[in-house]
Amino acid sequence: MASANDLRKGMAIDYNGDIAIVLEAQHRTPGNLRAFVQATMRSLRTGKSFDARFSSTEKIEVVPLSTRKMDFSYKDGRDYVFTDAETYETVTLNPEIVGDAQNYLVENSPVTVTFVGEKAVQIELPSSVVLTVADAPEGIRGDSASNVQKSVMLETGISVQVPLFIKTGEKIKIDTRSGKYLERA
């Protein structure tokens, strides 16, 4: 048993008979009240997010997590299919679990899938991915002040700001945490 002060993002805990993943946890000490931990969690059973408040000394039961390296295979309707490169086992995840990572997924993209027991609960992308520019408008001649940027559309459908010299068909490296252009690939 751990105390509520030990709650961290990504942990799984037993909360009211259900397993919940911690999405965010903050330790607060308001004025002359006792300290508490405010946590935003997602229920594995219902898939819904909720807020919970714990006394800083309250005991919580941590559920063990396991992770596996997998590759994104394809999109099946709304769902995303991932394959384990070693065992060729497939896992199908809904868009709620994939979340914003869907903006950076192309065929054979490596990801880390976190499991509680046999159920996949979240995916983690590498810190940067290489994507192809699908549509890039031409830079305007004479528009060469320092660090001028233009908006381009990537193969996954997201739009990012890049330098003027980037053209359609080029491969660029994108930071998955901030969604910003890093460099040419």
Instruction: Return the structural class.
Output: mainly beta
At CATH level 2, the architecture of the largest domain is: Roll
Rg from Cα: 21 Å
Report helical residue fraction. Answer: under 10%
Widest beta sheet: strand line-up: 1-6-2-3-4-5
Number of strands: 16
β-strand amount: over 45%
| Mean pLDDT metric | 86
CATH topology of the largest domain: SH3 type barrels
Shape: flat
Major sheet size, sense and barrel closure: 6 strands, antiparallel
Structure description:
The chain is mainly beta. It has three domains: 2-63, Roll (SH3 type barrels); 66-124, OB fold (Dihydrolipoamide Acetyltransferase, E2P); 128-184, OB fold (Dihydrolipoamide Acetyltransferase, E2P) (Beta Barrel). The protein has one helix and 16 strands. It has a six-stranded antiparallel sheet, with no helix packed on it. A five-stranded antiparallel sheet has the order 9-8-7-10-11. A hairpin with a 2-residue loop joins strand 2 (12-15) and strand 3. The termini are far apart. The mean pLDDT is 86.
